[in-house]
Amino acid sequence: MDVLPLTDESYQKLFLRGYPTKLLIPVIVDTLTKDSDFNSQKQFLENTISLPLVKQYPLKIEYMQSLMKLIILEASQALVNWCITHKFRLQNKCILELGSGVGLAGLAVSSECEPQTFWFSDCHPSVLGMLLSNVKVNVDREIDSKLSDTLEKDNFFKVSSFGMPNGVEENILYQGRMKNTSVYVMNLPWEDIPNLNISQGISPDIVLAADVVYDSTILESLCSALCHLVHKNCIAVVACTVRNEDTTKEFLEMLEKLHVSVEMEETTKFLEFLNLDEMPVRVYKLSRFNSS
Fold first, then answer.
1. Domain boundaries in the chain?
2. Tens-digit pLDDT profile for residues 5-59
3. pLDDT in tens, 221-245
4. How far apart are CA 200 and CA 224, in angstroms?
5. Strand order from edge to edge, sheet including 206-210
6. Which residues lie across from 174 on neighbouring strands?
7. What global pTM score does this model have?
8. Distance CA 260, CA 284 (A)
9. Which CATH number is 61-288 given?
10. CA-to-CA distance for 142 and 128, rounded, in angstroms?
11. How far, in Å, CA of 120 to CA of 197, rounded?
C-alpha cells in the first residue's frame, strides 16, 4: 500500500479514516527530520496531542516515586540515536534494558535495530503497568502474560513456560514478538541482579540504560548491577542527563573502583526530537578492563 504525501490536512484525515499507523511512521520521521525547526515540530505535536496515540494517566500521589521514569527524557532520545547509529552492533543480539520506564527506547530499538531478544525491565509497580501497556500495543503477537490487572508490588506471577533458571523466571511478566524480535518485560530491581544469575539466565550481549544516574543514593546498586552484567562478551551503554556534575563524577569513580572501563561515545542525531531541556546528555560505553 502506497503512503500518500503528508500534509497537516491529509494527516488528520488519514487518522480519521483509520489509515494504518505503521505505514505512516517512515513519512512522519522523514517530515520531522527535513527542514523541521522547533516551531514546526511544536505545531505538529500540538495538532496531534489530542489523538489517542499515547496512553495517558492523571498525575497521582503514588506516581511521585516513579515520576522520572514516566517521562520521556532526553537521555532516552540520545540512547535511541546511539542505537540506530550503531544498529549493526545490535542486530541479532540479546539486549537487556535497565530502568525501561515508559519503554520508548526499547520499542525504538526493537523495531529499528532487529535484535534477536529485547528485555525491558523496571521495578516500580506504576512504571511496570505503563511499560506493559505500551509494549502490548506495539507487539505483533503476544506469547504469554502472567500479570494481574492491578499490578501490585507483591502480586507478580511465575511464568513456567519460559524455561529460565529460578530467580529469573519468576520475575518475567510478559513475552511477545515484535517483527523478528522476542520481547520480554520483567520486574528487575537493580539490587537483586547479582543474586539472580542474570548473565546465565538471559546472557545479554548489550545492556542499555537511560537517565539512571540522577540520585547518588541509587548509585551503589546501579554500579553493582552493571559490574555484574558487564564482562568480556557484554558491554553496557548508559545515556546520562547531567543534572549534577558531582553525581556523574561519583558514578564514574564508582565504576572505576569496580574495574569497569568507561568511554564517552559520540551522540550523533539520527532522529530529531522536540527538545525543551538544555541540560547536556552524555553517552558512556562500559566494558571490562581486560575485555578483548
1. 8-48, 61-288
2. 555 555 555 554 555 555 555 665 566 555 556 566 556 555 554 444 444 444 4
3. 999 999 999 998 999 999 998 888 9
4. 17
5. 141-145, 172-178, 181-187, 117-122, 94-98, 206-210, 235-241, 281-288, 260-265
6. 145, 185
7. 0.71
8. 12
9. 3.40.50.150
10. 17
11. 17
